Amino acid sequence: MQKVVTISLNGIAYQLEEPGYNQLRTYLERAESRLQDSPDRNEVMADLEQAVGEKCRAVLGPHKTVVNSAEVDRIIMEMGPVESADEKEKAAGATGDAAAGMGAGAQSSGPPPRKRLFQIREGAMWMGVCNGIAAYLNVDVTWIRLAFVLLTIFSSGLWFVTYLVLMFVVPVAHTPEDRAAAFGMPFNTEELISRAKKNFEEFGDKYRWRREWRRQQRHFNRQFRHMNEQMRVATANVQPFIHNSARGIGMVFLPIAALLSAALVVAFILSLFSLVTSHTVFGWALPHGIPLWVGIVALVMLYIAISTPVRMIRHGGQQSAGYHPGWGAFHGLLWIGFVALLFWVSYTYFPGVREVVDSLMWAANLTVSTITETIV
Amino acid sequence: MEITEKLSPIRKGLLEFVILKIVAGDKVYVADMLKLLGPTEFATQEGTLYPLLSKLRREELVDYEWQESEAGPPRKYYKLTPKGRTQLSTLNDYWKNLNKTLADLGN
Predict the structure, then answer these.
(1) Distances (CA, A) of B93 to B23, B88, B89, B99
(2) How far apart are CA A133 and CA A174, in angstroms?
């Protein structure tokens, strides 16, 4: 059974299966963003809608009233990617000038090629995220890998989540054009989710999935062992310091530290999603020309920088207060309680937060339904 | 690199010329243009053709009229304008010269 969505294309209603509808919506949105600077945008969009409508009509009949997802996919394939005719002309002009060697003046008139961030599987250690970032930043991949490992260690594993997110969000370079192309991806929620869905579907391929999973486990185990060791060394160094400074504070400051750390987690998650969905953090917009992923990295680093001392105080406080399992469980519950409370308060009293949470729920729903579909 | 791949920018650049040629004949509908070009080297898709036609119309080289169709809403039928006809003959001449140059070179 499939849910059906009724849409209007140039004034005529059609019924599409829901996944097909999502595909078509993404296709048309992408087309519109491609034609953003074209004076013919509205006209071309109407033409495209009519062409899609006509193709839909061709597959419908008296006993078939719904266009299924496979048919929508085929229609989109037939339509082909939308390119602005003016843009093409500009690009052709630029290469023509360059080929003719018209000099710097002529060349600088064309827009500089924009880079794109991709996952590059060729020569990748794991999924090629680091490889892609290295290509994008034009530095040796070893440095990026080192940075990722160090950040993972210093964030006690939290940074690894960033890798996983990038793995699903960043497109994979399949063609030589992809590999040559540079960063500058249109980054709206719809595209982000459809890309994550597509990557997940690819990931859902049974055999590959299993292989990747085993690799991931091995990789994670290795990293975890390494991390543990690093942590032990690090804590051994800071232990005396923490012990002295936290001796007196102990039990009094523990709940406060728990509250602080809960507030930080809530603020971090909310600002991360606000950044991804609307490119703003509590009303502060990302400066023009700074790509979203830089903002995300900066935010994560900021969070780590602020939360690490708090975590150390909590850790140290627990140590000096005399650690035993019941005590730790109590503080864990206290912390979870604070997180839930803060979420509830911000959801109830800040409309902006509600929007973010609602869009997050929507995305989660979509993801869950995709996962269910892939499994069933 | 494949020969066809090497020459793909040339085919892309010639598409405008090809469309003007098609439109010069009879009034045509986009689906018919695609069908006509399908088996040729200039096979293309709606995603490319519609933006190109809109651009040509903005440059007043082609124009369209609405025609009722028995199946569904009215369709746009494209035709050449006088300005488009002049441009087409210029392009034709240019293409002939280009062919001549290519044939003469190396002889």
Answers:
(1) 18, 9, 6, 10
(2) 16
A44 contact residues in B (CB cutoff 8 A): 50-51, 54
Residue of A10, A40, A80 with shortest CB distance to B47: A80
Q: What CA–CA distances, in Å, run from A63 to A21, A59, A66, A74, A200?
A: 20, 11, 9, 20, 34
Q: How many CA atoms lie within 13 A of A10 on its CB side?
A: 20
Strands (E), A171-318: 280-281, 284-285
Residue B30 sits at the chain A interface (C-beta within 8 Å): yes
Task: Mark yes or no for CB contact A83/B46 under 8 Å.
Answer: no
State which H helix or E strand residue A48 sits in. Answer: helix A41-59
A31 touches chain B (CB under 8 A): yes
Which residues have CB under 8 Å from A194's CB, separation 6+?
A22, A23, A26
Q: Cα–Cα distance between A364 and B6 in angstroms, integer?
A: 45
Q: Which of A40, A57, A60, A78 to mutate to test the interface with B (most CBs of B within 10 A)?
A: A40
Minimal CA–CA distance to A234: which of A150, A329, A127? Answer: A150
Structure tokens at A360: 């997050």
Q: Is A23 helix (H, G, I), strand (E, B) or coil?
A: helix
The token duo for B45 is: 């898709």
Distance in angstroms (rounded) separating the CA atoms of residues B68 and A2: 35
Cβ <8 Å between B12 and A83: no
Q: What is the per-residue pLDDT across A211-260, written as a single tens digit (0 to 9) for each?
A: 766 777 777 777 777 777 777 776 666 666 655 555 555 566 667 777 78
Give helix A250-278 / helix A189-203 axis angle, nearest 10°: 100
Separation in Å, CA of A233 to nearest CA in chain B: 54
Task: Report how far residue A320's alpha carbon sits from residue A341's, in angstroms, rounded to the nearest whole number.
Answer: 28
Closest residue to B73, CB basis, from A10, A79, A82: A10
Q: Which tens digit of pLDDT belongs to each residue from A309-337?
A: 777 777 666 665 555 556 666 777 777 78
Partner residues linked to B28 by β-bridges: B78
A179 closest CA partner among A144, A131, A126: A131
